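Re: Re: ligand-bound prediction request (bumping)

Still looking for help on this. To restate: I need the protein modeled with alpha-D-galactopyranose bound, output as structure tokens. Inputs repeated here so nobody has to scroll up.
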Amino acid sequence: MTETRWFRAPGRVNLIGDHTDYNEGFVLPVAIDLGCVVRSKRRADGIVRVRSEDADGEVELAADGGTDPAALDVAWGRYAAGVVRTLAKRGRPAVGMDAVVSSTIPLGAGLSSSAALEVALALALCDAAGFELPLLELAVACQEAEVVATGVPCGIMDQLASLAGKHNHALLIDCRTLEVEPIRMPPRLAVLILHSGVSRTLVGSAYAERREACEEVAARLGLASLRDATAEQVADEPRARHVVSENARVLAAARALEAGNVAVLGPLLNESHASLRDDFEVSTPELDALVEALRGAGAVGARLTGAGFGGCVVGLAARDQADLIVETAAGRYWAATGNQPRAFVFRAVDGAGRIPAQVRT
Ligand code: GLA
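Reply:
Sorry for the wait, this slipped through. Here it is.
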């Protein structure tokens, strides 16, 4: 196999359920039609060479996983090295590959640009070596790559959403069993994504600190994770209180989405934002202002999405009012903060895979 093969992995937006995945809880992400594409060709030697069309630099990695991600200067190259390493650990033969990556996902926006890169590269690497892994194991290998590359102890949501996405559906994921239930998105509902214009900063250390705080409460309660905690048990623990209340909101939101019940869905999103802002303390003044602007402009609900500390907010609106709401909200946000928000209109798409030759443009 020496011809060039193409692979695509989508980014994701999380409708609701943040900072729940690493507590073995529930999340409701959607794979979106912004993504990462990898063009790859097998090499006869044991070298994996990856070049990015969006960022500077090229990395050369040992296909047996011998290259230490932390030793690389090129930040995006650490993800590539992470994937090569975690796949090698799972038995991928040390087959070399040339790859070019390009992405339409904005960096630091909370739309999983790094997970999409990991997943697309992982598919290319497996294909080049004739190596196969079940979807869930591939997701875990990519999650591990992210941890290896960044040192941030992230959960499984982003990589699994990128792999398991389904056209026109959101994904209810149980992060304990890794069971994925696709939930049909009602056609008259528009999901709006607006970028605050402020990239996430310092997310690594704050993220790790939040995760530790959750694990500390679970251990104190004698529980495997906060998934098993009750509202009563965590009533006086703001971080854990967020996780427990958010899990309940995700389950309620999945059923409301399925039923197209916007009257229930909107308030759940709003409560999620309040909980992330007040109990989990991962919002910023800009994210709060953008959420307010969206609601003020007529969105039925809005919240920060992803890890927080910058990036995007997600809102819901009737499809026929979506454009007007986005425009009005953007104007108000700009007036309030001086930041120009960037709006994304997206479709819910299928998960990552090979792009057959006939559909390439
Ligand atoms: C980041 C992590 C995910 C998840 C979210 C917050 O996107 O990669 O695993 O924890 O933050 O919900």
